[in-house]
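Sharing a chain and its predicted structure for anyone who wants a worked example. Both blocks are below, sequence first, tokens second.
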Amino acid sequence: MRVALVQMAASTDPNANLTTIEKLTSGIEADLVVLPEAVMHDFGNPDTPLGPAAQPLDGPFVSAIAGLARQLDATVIAGMFEVSGDPDRPHNTLVALAPDGTLAGTYRKAHLYDSFGYRESDRLLRGPAEPAVLTVNGHSLGLLTCYDLRFPEHARALVDAGADNLVVPAAWVRGPLKEDHWETLVRARAIENTVYVAAAAQCGRAYCGRSMLVDPLGVAVSAAGEAEGVIGGEIDLHRLASVRERNPALQHRRAWPTSTTHHEHAQQDG
């Protein structure tokens, strides 16, 4: 499966973002095109309200991405802010549009970025802790968004649900050690689950860029720096099978007890 990862700096103007997307994807030949998190409308400043920017799944942004998917004859995955039951706090949602323009899947970000002095939950509503998996050209894709990378149990739940590849649109905020965390976590999720990880990130003033496609042994098939652009690579089922034969770690898993007290406390925190 041919994969194209689009790295760009989104603005708070959806029309301008669509123009940039169209420019960067012109002439792409791929089966899967991955756009970053919040590519419809950037997060903006920490005090920027996101409720007014939210759109429904049948709104103009998804319609435009559906048109792009038809034009490219590819599945396109992109990040948006989706209207929710709370007018002030939309969902941080990934949409997957099939080559015929139909909506092939959605994922609402389950782990909100309340970390490193930031409070995503003040402006966004978290989604359910349910694995989102879809099939593209015979490949099973599990969807994650940005901060979700820091939760290995989330990636493992996707693999348990059948995913052989992880797709991670992101707007990974730059900062001390943050770029190192990004690269380490992308590779770790690939290695520990013996899967490909296709991670497309925003770049620009606030974000680190460094989009990458990593194979099941943690080797970068392709990687970007800090500039806008598109990188490509292939997800190879034969490579996946070969790695899993060589390193059958998933078959060696054992069930470990969990602390009931800690589990109950975590449930109450939500």
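Comments welcome. The chain has a mean pLDDT of 95.
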